[in-house]
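Q: Structure tokens for this one, please.
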Amino acid sequence: MSAAEEEEGVPILETASHGGSSGGSCPGSPSGFRHRRRSVDPPGFIRTFGLDRLYSWPKKTEHLFIHECEHCNTRDVVRIRGKHKVDHALASGEEVEHEHYVGGYRYRHKHKDPHEAHDLHGKGHGYHYDGKGRGGAKVAAAAVLCASLVALALGTYLALGGKTFEGMPYPVPLLARAAVPALVFCGLAFALASGSYFAIAAFYGDGHRSDGVEGRDGGPHFALMCVSHALSAWEDRMWQFAVPVLMMRVFRDTLLPGALFALVQYLGVVFLMPKAGALIDGSYRIRLARHAIALENVCIFGTCALLGLMVHRAEDKGWKGKVLGLDGAMAAYYSAIVVLGVVGEVCNQILTISLEQDWVVVLAKETGRDLTRMNVNMKRIDLLCKVLAPGLIGVFLDFFGLLRGQDAMASALCGILLLGLFNALAWPLEVSLLGEIHDGLPGLQMKRIRNEAAFYEDLLREGGEAEKGKGDHSGDRSFLETVKLYCTHRVFLASLSFCMLFMTVMDNGTLVTSYLVWRQVNAGALGLQRGVGAVVGLAGTFVYPKLAERMGYEKVGLWSIWAFTLCMAPGAAAQLLLGPSRTSDWALIAAMVVSRAALWAFDLAERQVMQEECEEESRGALNACQVSCYQTLYCVIQVFGMVFWHPANFSVLTAISLGSLVGASAVYTMWYTNKN
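A: Here is the predicted structure, written as tokens:
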């Protein structure tokens, strides 16, 4: 076979001397793989712009080891792709990363002699994966524990010996004051987080690192996922609290930059999430999680640095002669922060969907645990982080005197340092914990192939899929294809009803808070209302599992959404009938408190609908479209808030909100009736 023929994609076929398949040997089947070797063209966008003709594009080779068994009607394809080093690695017996397509699933791993018969764990030719986590969680937890103790010791030293820095040149005293709460808080938080890993390992032993019988209850895997989820949720809530505060430190006389930042972030999520959902379906779980966490943290670090520059420039220039304080440099900083905010939020949503809608479902099936109770525990973590994260950060800042107006610059720097240091310590711990879970559960290592028959036909035909440089086509859906899939899927009405709950002002959000402040409701009463509402919502997570066990999660969703609407109706009616008055104010507050239990029960029911009713190969796309849908409806109610901007017109917004709640309840009822 000539080199020219090989470059044109003409296969080289040869029969190996060993039998079996990568899924395990098949008695009665013909032995041997067919070996196909062909060149791979550059990616399509490279060829589209003619970049492959401008310079010598590195040639890649693809090896396909194909086994088809007529006896048991199975097909197994092992694919190895790389540059010229791949041929040498195969010949010399080095470890080679390769991908399997078998039984409607695909998975990727790395070891020696990939063409020999073996399964997901390498059984079959001497190599055996024993299930031990390769995520390095123990090393990462030990390193983070040491770093947290150092941070705590350094913060304590700076707090006790702060006067020794007063005589030093600027900005050493400023940085010392700002670093104290950040170091103390992160030291305590990550001593607890890393200690949790060792406590879980000690409690369960090595059961979670075995692929045998031990640990099949899933306890350790889910416990590790809860630790990782708690870190991620705390980061998210802390970020939501800190960015508006820091924006107000820079833009002191206007809310416009902060509002514009939030609006662009929401719109970015609306338009980018459908494609991100297709990416979730087409990517291997651990690789996607690592990339999403890395990119999100890079965005956070970049935002912290830019906010620091903006705060420094704001203090230095004093806004004289500037519109909104935006000279050329400030406008560039702000634009970069907006872009980083959009990218970071999309990455956060990708990670949230992956863990809450996909990883948890696979973990429940692999370990036989109750999916309902796993969802409840994850939701409780969300609620606790939502309540505790802003409060604890505020307490730490206030304890060290940085929110009492003593030093505005130190207060801003403290918030920036706290965000940066927390994410720097959380990054390796999150990734390693997820790696430990992933390596211990075979189901997480495999991805289902969408359109299996068409995929294999495209993969194996000459000049086919290999030239496109693509794998499974799950990630190839366009924006319109993903939206069409969502709108025509059987879960659409249930998902739409959930999304419609976001088109309301009766949600403890900015609009209702601003209205109640205008009505001169005491700030302490507003804070108490949120705290009591969180407790009531947490109570709903305890009631939901018992109701779901008796009635089924779908029926619980039906009862809870109508209960939520009925609880909100008196507060809305008081606004419509009485207008702005003390009675209507307290009726609205009471309605928002009492309704939280039903709201969070419906949230759990709808989440389980999306988990149980969505096919594995479409979970990412469907849940991402749901995120886009509810973000769109949230933007709609914000637009209504700008149209009816005067607080005296709040009753109009209340009527729109009540109509949305009744509509959501009716839509879910339609879905439930049609399904049953």
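A few notes: The beta strands are 34-40, 60-69, 74-82, 96-102, 105-111, 446-448. The two ends are 62 Å apart (CA to CA).
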